[in-house]
Amino acid sequence: MYPIGTPGQPWGEEEKKQWLAAQSVKRSYADEVLSQLDGMPDYFSVIQYGALPYDESRYPLYALLPRQPIADAPWVLVTGGVHGYETSGVQGALLFAREYSQAYTDKINLIVVPCVSPWGYETINRWDPLAIDPNRSFYPDSPAPESKLLMDFIGAMAQEFLLHIDLHETTDTDNSEFRPALAARDAIEQKAWEIPDGFYLVADAKAPHLPLQQAIINEVKKVTHIAPTDENGLIIGAEVPSEGVICYDKRKLFLCGGFNNATYCSTTEVYPDSPSATPEICNRAQVAAVEGALQHLLK
Hints:
Blueprint: H1 13-21, H2 29-32, E1 44-51, E2 60-66, E3 75-80, H3 87-100, E4 109-113, H4 118-123, H5 145-155, E5 163-169, H6 173-186, E6 200-204, H7 210-220, E7 245-248, E8 264-270, H8 279-298
Parallel strand pairs: 3-4, 3-5, 5-8, 6-7
Antiparallel strand pairs: 1-2, 6-8
Helix pairs in contact: 3-8, 7-8
C-alpha cells in the first residue's frame, strides 16, 4: 500500500501536499545541466523560453536554436527531461548537441530542449510539484507549467517540424515508486508488467513509420541491447509490431512526442538499471537514437 492517501479514494489537495513535503533535492540542475550550455557549438543560440513558477531563478528553461537557420532545410526537435528523473534523456540531449550535432547542422535546422522538467531532474521525480505528470499534460491550457511553456514556445514558431524525437528512460522505480504513486493518487488499479531489460521505442499508433523506428533500433544496437519481449510477446503490456518498438496514441494520451504534429516522431526508452548499463552507455544510446533518426531521414 502506498504510504500517502486512503485506498480507494483519489488524492485531494492535502494528500498532494503530503507527497510534495516528502520530496527533496538530490542533485543540482545548475551544476549538471545549466553549466553545460556555455560549451555548445557556435551553431546554437541558447534561448531562455520561460521559467518554472515554483522558483523562477532556480528553474529557468532553455532551448538551443540555430543561430542562422538554413533556408529550405528541414526542422528537427529533440527534447529531453520531460520526466526529470530520466537522467540520460537530459544528458543524452546535451551530449548530442555538444559533440555530435555538427555532423548535421549543414543539412538540418536543429532545436534541442535538454531539460523540460528541471524540478523533476533535481528531485528525481516523474511528476512536478503539483503531482502532475508533464508527459500526460500536453494539451491546451495545461495545468503543468513544464508542458505549457514548451507548447507555447514551439507553438509560436512558424515552421513545421519533420521530426520530433523525445528522449526517455524506463527504470525499475517505475514499478517500485511511480506507478504505485499513480495508483494511489487516482485510486485506480495498475496492471503489473516486468520492466524490459533493454532499449525500446514508442512510436505513434496513428503514424508509426516503422522504417524510421527500425533505423533507430539498428543504430542503438551498436551501443546497447534492445529489449526482448516478455513471455506474452509484449513490452510493458503493448504489442510489438517491429523489433523493440511499441505504439501509443500520443495525441490521445497528451504525450510530449505528439504535441507539435511533426511528420515523424519517436520516443526513446533507455533502461539504466540493466546490469550491463552505465551512465555513459545510456547517454550514448540516446545519441545513437537521434543519429539513427537523422541519418534515415537524410537518405
